[in-house]
Amino acid sequence: MLLQPERTRGDPQITLSLSLSTPITPNQWRQRSLLHLSAFLRRAPPLRLLLPLSLPPLLLASRHLRVSSCAHGSDGDRIVARPSSELRRGIRENSSKVEDEKLLSLRRLFARPDVGIDAYIVPSQDAHQSEYIAECLRRRAYLSGFTGSAGTAVVTKDKAALWTDGRYFLQAEKELSRDWTLMRSGTRGVPTTSEWLNDILPPGARIGIDPFLFSFDAAEELKQEISKKNHELILLKEFNLVDEIWNDSRPDPPSKPTRVHDIKYAGADVVSKLSYLRSHLGESGCTSIVVSMLDEVAWLLNMRGSDVPHSPVFYGYLIVEPYRATLFVDTKKVTKEVLNHLTNAGVELKPYESVLAEIESLALKGAKLWLDTSSVNAAIVSVFRSACERYSSQLNNNSTNQSIHHGGPDAVYQVSPVALAKAVKNNAEIEGMKNAHLRDAAALVEFWCWLEKEIDNNVALTELDVADALLEFRQKQEGFIETSFNTISGYGANGAIIHYRPIPGDCSLVENKNLFLLDSGAQYVDGTTDITRTVHFGEPSKWQKECFTRVLQGHIAIDEVIFPERTPGFVLDVLARSSLWKVGLDYRHGTGHGVGAALNVHEGPQSISFRFGNLTALQKGMIVSNEPGYYEDNSFGIRIENLLLVIEANVPNAYGGIEYLGFEKLTFVPIQTKLVELSLMSPGEIKWLNDYHGQVWEKVSPLLNGEALDWLSKNTRPI
């Protein structure tokens, strides 16, 4: 399809002629026409579209575009177009009634005698505070239509609002219907959920939550905030209101079997890990601990699963006592091999749903329970507290003036000791991560070689086609299991959507006229990868090169930094942004997150971020990402990401008798040098890039041959 603008004398508008060179279906016509129209509109004056009567009715009836002539001065014509939120609303007009019905159905439940609330809060999490969750638990996405991994929906009797952070502003704008108000968290003037509820609800309102979906800390903070207006927090533990309206369309719960994570990859057996945990119990004076984070349960037990997309975990709780450990899990997922593995480690099995009864039983036995209230859900804590109160009541009823009872049930509220132990990788885990990254690098080189050739040959590929092709290249690698998150394949303006995900029938073609951002990762049996590269298949603009170079300078600054032990990650964050700040630019996400070893791609407690509340020090053996970026809304996005291992730095001194740390690269894939503006780079930065590409060639070339090897040679030459 060709687009040919024609200017007429004395007419401030343009006629856009469209000609079709080959027969195509209505859906193909619609997709291609909109892709080309959007590209044209970014540089065209106001338009008058003359559409042939033979065009598909779907396009003629659509509201994807509204253009009008407008007054213009010396700067020339300007385009008036609908914002992306309105575009999405037009696309989804036919589905808005379905969304309305969801809200109406939910609100009808508010008046039910066993509910009786004025507002309901629907977070993103599951009962284990997971970032990625099973399809059947994606309640917020079902209710709101917003599919990002972070966000909170709040529904009152007459309003609906959704909060999300800067990674998802553009995505939420596209996906939310007109029935929802988007709250851009962290933006000046935007209230928090509790502030908003305090503002719009009359004093004394009842605000409902599912306590399984809130950590105890989050629920307590919410309770305190809304109490300022005498609102009451209602814990609806027996049912979830979204589940009540989801009904038969709700996906089935995950049912695939769990598996044993081989000791050669785990590096330590289950008995040793449980012994480590029990030593912490003894030191704290506790008699038991509840482990609820899914990656902590999987790590402790050297098990893996597939209950959650992109994360090799399974739904379960683990309660560890001095001489006993109990896994609460769907026993149908436990194979004979896994059962033998657990039995040999002294781990018993109980049904997943029986965890609350066990918590209650522990309290009635006088247990001193270790609870990490930042991750353990409010349902568990509330049940334990209620049982403690019953214990005290029974004790008082049975006591006499001559008897005094000592040592009743109690709780110690501390951060789980498992989180830090899991974050500091042992030698076997480090070796597995290094090996997985090399195989992943080979797959990526073969992929980029293929994609570059396809683009050069003018093959029409959508962002989704590209993501699917990358998956095929990775699947050829030994030990591949699945992707570690949904591939972010964003061409042009879509690259500016930080967590963009291409959707069939609604994504861009990947061409050679703009930047292409690809953020992807994989789960292998021995490790987890996460890498981002930004490329241009044509000629980048001077501005794009400057932006890319400043992002690269931030990436290099993080990679080269040396820092004293006990340094928290937020101290380093400024280094990644400094070059961007010099010209008034920035990005709306953290610079680095922790990464698990054959576990979750996002792992705590460590991070590198502007959020200075995380005081966790970076320690030897931790793995973090290094991913500064820059995003120009409705234009392009840039991000460069490698994974780094924290190591001891080789420095000539040890001031204060302390250890100094640095980073070792795990990711070895070329960075496109034609996007680098050499005039902005220091000699040291140029040396870093050449040295890095030398390492890429040395480590990855033995795994390649043919065209891929030639491509790697070309793209690792010194500049």
TrEMBL record:
Gene Ontology CC, one term: cytoplasm
Name of the molecule in the record: Xaa-Pro aminopeptidase 1
Q: Where is the Peptidase M24 domain?
A: 431-647
Q: Which UniProt keywords apply?
A: Aminopeptidase, Hydrolase, Manganese, Metal-binding, Protease
The keyword Amino-acid biosynthesis is assigned to this record: no
Q: What is the lineage of its organism?
A: Eukaryota, Viridiplantae, Streptophyta, Embryophyta, Tracheophyta
Q: Which Gene3D superfamilies does the annotation name?
A: Creatinase/methionine aminopeptidase superfamily, Creatinase/prolidase N-terminal domain
Single GO term (MF): metal ion binding
Q: Which residues form the Peptidase M24 C-terminal domain?
A: 659-719
What is the organism field in this record? Rhynchospora pubera
